[in-house]
Amino acid sequence: MAEPEFSATGVRIERSRRSLTRAGQVKIHNGRLELLTSYGREIDSAPVDSVQASKPWFSAGDRARATVNGNRYTLTLGAPGTAAENGGAAAVNRFLEVVRSAHGSTPKH
Predict the structure, then answer these.
(1) What burial class does residue 86 get, using C-beta atoms within 10 Å of its C-beta: 0-12 exposed, 13-18 middle, 19+ buried?
(2) Largest CA distance in the chain
(3) This prediction's pTM
(4) Which of 98, 76, 87 is nearest to 23 (CA)?
């Protein structure tokens, strides 16, 4: 069985209310999650089965929270006010699905 893959570009990545990049990338491949700047420089990475991910209940549908190596990141997967915002919620759901499948659990609704 092939490992699930995920890739998103144009992602706003924040840590502790501080924006690290407004057009970053989130990639999951070969069992690793990578958070990258718009220039491709690594912000953080870890084996995907050690990453915790969730959808904050108090935020917009295009946001996810990920804990990577003990650092909490907020990922915004759709630009506000654009068509990408609608696709952001779908991208968040796909991201959470891939992370959960790496843990061997089923999605929680």
Answers:
(1) exposed
(2) 38
(3) 0.84
(4) 76
